[in-house]
């Protein structure tokens, strides 16, 4: 509830007073093996507004469409036979991402359905999508943790926050203090720790595979460019020795390219 109020402080006039967790996705081996996204938390408040909270560390370049899918699924699922459209619940999605998918400077961006010309006119408030970029948050020079609750929460979430600053944040905010107590409790559980470390290893393996693929792609690109240069040089009548010096290709490769012509 404290986190939601921090996220919604600029878009809600009245703070949330009561929340009910509808679904809390527990980290299990089956989930760890799933390479797709995970909807981490579904919450209902006292006004029957629904919140979908997702933490995403990897950029699959589909975050915008995925969050719209989650929103649409929840929105459509809140109506049953015999209900009127006016009974559909408001659905707010909150995405905490560790990559830069929104090309705006702010670390916290909010989206609604607005009229193209009259930007202040919102068609309906049933759709609200938040993105919290940890990448942009880390780059901020002046984080107003004293007056901004959301800055406190993101500093608490960020593993790179220095220990001294983390202690200050926990001491500043009662809700974060309670969350930290709960975290300390659950991390004493051996099963939780085992799954947590497995998750860390899975993320490290994924990062390594991506970096390897990128490096391989770069090497293939360089080799293709060298081959193209060699072909052009051969067509201009340059010798094999000169082309070898220019491109760095093996002599046998250049000869094979020459014989193909």
Folded structure, characterized:
This protein is α/β, with parallel strands linked by helices and 261 residues long. It has 2 domains: 139 residues, no CATH class; 52 residues. It is built from 10 helices and 6 strands, in the order αβαββαβββααααααα.
Summarize this, please?
The chain contains 10 helices and 6 strands, in the order αβαββαβββααααααα. It has 261 residues and is α/β, with parallel strands linked by helices. The protein has 2 domains: 2-140, no CATH class; 209-260.
List the helices and strands and how they pair.
Blueprint: H1 2-7, E1 19-24, H2 29-32, E2 41-45, E3 50-56, H3 63-77, E4 91-97, E5 108-114, E6 122-133, H4 134-139, H5 149-157, H6 163-172, H7 174-186, H8 190-235, H9 240-247, H10 251-260
Parallel strand pairs: 3-4, 4-6
Antiparallel strand pairs: 1-2, 2-3, 5-6
Extract low-pLDDT stretches: none
Number of helices: 10
Q: In what range is the share of β-strand residues?
A: 15-25%
Structural class: alpha/beta
Number of DSSP-assigned strands: 6
Distance between the termini: 71 Å
C-alpha-based Rg, rounded:
26 Å
Helix and strand pattern: HEHEEHEEEHHHHHHH
Mean pLDDT: 84
| Biggest beta sheet summary | 6 strands, mixed
Strand order of the largest sheet: 1-2-3-4-6-5
Count of distinct structural domains:
2
The quaternary structure here is single chain
Please bin the fraction of helical residues: 40-55%
Q: What is the overall silhouette?
A: elongated
């Amino acid at each position: 509830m404290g986190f939601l109020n921090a996220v919604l402080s600029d878009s809600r006039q009245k703070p949330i007073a009561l929340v009910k967790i509808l679904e809390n996705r527990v980290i299990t081996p089956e989930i760890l093996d799933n390479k797709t996204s995970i909807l981490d938390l579904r919450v209902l408040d006292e006004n029957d507004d629904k919140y979908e909270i997702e933490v995403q560390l990897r950029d699959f370049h589909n975050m915008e469409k995925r969050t719209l899918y989650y929103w649409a699924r929840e929105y459509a699922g809140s109506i049953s036979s015999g209900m009127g459209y006016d009974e559909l619940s408001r659905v707010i999605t909150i995405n905490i991402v560790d990559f830069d998918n929104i090309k705006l400077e702010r670390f916290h961006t909010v989206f609604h359905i607005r009229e193209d010309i009259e930007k202040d006119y919102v068609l309906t408030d049933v759709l609200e999508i938040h993105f919290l970029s940890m990448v942009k948050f880390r780059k901020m020079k002046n984080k107003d943790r004293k007056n901004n609750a959301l800055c406190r929460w993101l500093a608490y979430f960020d593993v790179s926050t220095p220990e001294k600053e983390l202690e200050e944040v926990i001491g500043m905010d009662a809700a974060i203090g309670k969350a930290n107590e709960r975290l300390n409790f659950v991390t004493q559980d051996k099963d939780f720790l085992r799954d947590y470390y497995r998750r860390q290893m899975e993320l490290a393996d994924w990062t390594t595979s991506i970096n390897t693929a990128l490096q391989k792609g770069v090497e293939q690109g360089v080799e293709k460019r060298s081959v193209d240069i060699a072909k052009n040089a051969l067509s201009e009548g340059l010798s094999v020795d000169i082309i070898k010096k220019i491109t760095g290709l093996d002599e046998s490769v250049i000869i094979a390219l020459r014989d193909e012509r």
